[in-house]
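Section handout 9: paired folding examples.
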Amino acid sequence: MKNIINIAVVGLGQVGIYLLNELNTKKKDIELKTGKKINVVAVSARSISKKRRFKVNKKIFFKNPLEIFNKTKVDILFEAIGMSDGISKKVVETALKNKIHVITPNKALISKHGDYLGKLAEDNNVNLEFEASVAGGIPILRTIKEGLATNKISKVYGILNGTSNYILSEMENSNDSFSNVLKKAQKLGYAEPGNPKLDLNGFDAFAKVRILSALAFNTKISKHKCLMEGIEKIELKDIEISNQLNLRIKLLGISELINGQLFETVHPCLVSKSSYIGNVGGVMNAVILEGKPVGESILQGEGAGPGPTSSSLLSDLLSILRGNIKKPFGIPGNKRKLIKCYNVDNYVNSLYLRFEVKDKPGVLSTITNRLAKYKISVKRLIQTPDKKNNKATIVIITHKTNELNSKNCLSVFNKDKNILRYPTLIRIYN
C-alpha cells in the first residue's frame, strides 16, 4: 500500500459528521500508528448548507457521491448513508468495482446484500469492513473473525440495540411511560428524532443477528422469515410486575445452531435481575458467545450514538492502513453455505402472560382451562383487581411450552368478550 491514502466520506448525518471530525482531529495519531498519511479528498451529502457541527469544505464536496469516482482518486471510502438499497448500495458497489476499500456501519445494507458485496470485495482484492454495523464500539465481529477464529461457536446472543435498552432501563428507573421515555431518548440523540421505528420494532437488532450468524457459523446470510418482535407493546405495568418477580425486560437478539439448523430471533425477554445480561443498562450493548474450547465469552460497551460507531469505523481504517487484506466474512465466500432454518414453532420458553379482563366469576377458570387445552401449564398466578372500573389484571407465569401451542392458544382469546384486549406475551429467557 502506498504511503499517502486518499479518503472519501459519503453521508454526513450524525455518524458521518462525527467521523469526519475524528479523521481531522486524530490525523496525527492515525499516521503515527500506521505509518501512512491520510487525506480526506471527498465528502458527500444531500446538502452542503445543512447546519452541522462544523463547516464542510466546499472544494471537496459532492452532492452526487457517484461523481467522486470520476473526479478524484480515492483509496478508502466510508459509506454512512444508512440505506439498504438505492444510493448506499450503488456507492459501495461502485467503490469495490474500482478497487477501493469500503468501511461502513450500515447493518441494513450488509444484512441484505453482504454476500454479493463481499464477493465483489474478494474479486477485487479489497476490504469490505463493517465492524461498526453490530454493537457500536464493541469489536465483536473482529473477535469472531480473528480472536475466536479456531473456536466452534454454537450460540451468540445479547443486547444489540442501545436505543431499546435505554428505553426499557429508563422506564424502570424513572417509573415513566414508554412514550415519555422515547421522547427523552430522542432529545439525547439515542433515538432518531423523526422515525425511530427500526430501533423499536426489532429490525435493527435482527439485521445485526443475521450478520453475527454469518460470521459465527460460516454461513451465507440467512433469508428465512423468522420470529421478530420489538418493544413497542411493552407497558409500564409490565415493567412494574417484572420487578415484583425479580425479573427485568430486555430486548435480546439470539442466534444459535439447534440440531445443525440455524435459529435466529429478536424479541423482548424476561431475564433474572441477578443474571449478567439483566444488569446491562442504559445504552449499553452486551454480546455473549458460547463455543468450544473457549466456553463463554462476554463483550460489553456502548451501542448507541456516533462516538462508539466512529470508534469501530476508525479501527477498521487502521486495520486497512496496516495492510490487512481480509475476507469480509472471515472465510472465502464460496466456502460459506446456506443452512436449513430451525422451525420456530418448536421454539420452547416459559411465558409471561398478562390479561386485562372483566372482574366477574368464571373468567380466571376460563383462561386456565384454555391454557390447559393447549398443554400450557400454570407455574405462578398474580391477580390484581380494579374494583373501581370492575376490571382485573391477571398475570400468569407458565411452565415451558412451544411457540405453536402459545400462538394457537392466544388466538382463541380474541373471541372472548370478557378479555378486554389481546394478551401481552413476553418470553422468559433461561
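Moving on to protein 2 of 2.
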Amino acid sequence: MRIAIASDIYYPMTNGVAVFARNLARGLARAGHEVMVISPSFNGKFHIDTDEETGIKTAYLTSLRFPFYPDQINEVPEKKDFLGIPMPCLTYRYGIWWSVNPYSEIKKVLSEFKPDVIHLQTAETIALAVMRYVKKYNVPLVSTGHAYPDNITDQLAILKPKLIKKASNAMIRAYMASFLKHSEYATMPTEMAIGDLIPKNRKHFKATVEALSNGIDLSEFYPKRPNIEVLKKYNLDNKSQKILYIGRVDPEKSIDLVLKAFKELLGLSGVPAKKLELVIVGDGIDLANLKVLANELGIEKQTKFLGRVMPPELIEIYRAGKMFVTASETETQGIVLIEAAAVGLPLVAVDAGAVSELCQDGKNGELCQPRDVNGIARAMAKILLDTELAKNYKLGSIEIAKRHDLKRTIARFEEIYEQAIILKNSEEP
C-alpha cells in the first residue's frame, strides 16, 4: 500500500506524537509499504527528503516559526509568556512551526504520491488541509487521537478558573472528536482516552473507534546490562541505585512532586540514602525551575539533570535504572512507561489518566494517589527495600510490555487501512 502519514508534530521533535509517527512510518516501511510523511518544515522552506535506509519520503511544508521562540528545534524558550499568556509554553508542547498554506502543497504532494490511505495524527493546520483533501478527492482516512484536553488548558493561566477550564476542555474535546468522527476508522492509544474524548452516544459518529497501543520496538528495548561507557559520558555512578524520570520536563508532568518525594525517600528508615541517585532525562520549560527546587530541597548532589538523550544512549540509561517514577496525571498512554517496562523497570506512578493500563498496582509497580508526595516516597522505598518484590515487578513489567510490541501495532494498522479502503469504496455511488 501507499500510505501517507500527516502530522503537525514530527521528528526531530521528541514528544509522544512525534515518536509514534516516526515509529509508525519506519515500521510500515519495513513491512514493505510505500510511506510518505507530511509535516511542517523546520527551516521554513518546502522540501521533500527521502530516507535512504527506509525509503520513507517526508514532505516538509512551508512553515513559520512561532514568534518569540528560539531558532533551535525544541530548545527551551527564554521568554515564557507574552502579555501574561504563556503561548510559547503551549507552542513548545504542541509544535513550534506552523504550516503557512498547507492545502496547496498537500494537494501537490499527494496528487503525485497517490496514497491508498491517509493516516492523520494531529488536529492542527495540516489536519484541516488533509480533511479538505480527502473530502474533495475521496481518499480513505484513518485518524489517531493522541491529545488530552487538560494538556492544553493546564498550560494557560487564563483558562485555570474552574468554569472556564471546564468549558474550554469541552470545546477542545469536541474539536478533536470532529477529526475522528469523519474518518473511516479512528484509533486512540487506550480505552481511557476513548472514554474521555468520544461521546458515549455515538449516533452521529461515523467512524469505528478502537483502542490501539502506540507501541514500541521491543527489538531495541529489552533487559540488558547497561553500557558503562554511556554512563560515564553522563557522569552517572555505576554503583548507585538510580531512580529515573524520562520525558518532557514541563509543568504538566508534575516532576516537582518527584523531587519532593525523593527528598522524603532519603529520610525514610532503612533506605540506603547515600547509594541513591535521581536521574531526570529530558528537556522542557520547567528545567530551570526544577534545578532551583533541587537546590532548595538540598538534593542537588544526588539529582542528575541529563537534558535530552536520544536512542541508543537513552536505552542504556533506562537499563541502568532501579525503577521508573512519574507523577503525571495527563497521560493518554505514556510511551516512556512502555519503554521503562520493556527494559524490566518497576514503575511508580499516580492513578490518573491512562497510567493504570501500564502501571498495574501489585503486578509491575505501585500506584499512588495524585499529588501524594509521601505516598510516592513510600512506594519507592517499598521497591528499594524488598528485593523479591522488585524482581516480581521486573517480570511483570516485561510481560505487560510484550502487549505493546510495535510489530503488533503495525500489523493491526495494516488491517485497519484495508478496512478503511473497503469502507470508502462502499460509499461510492
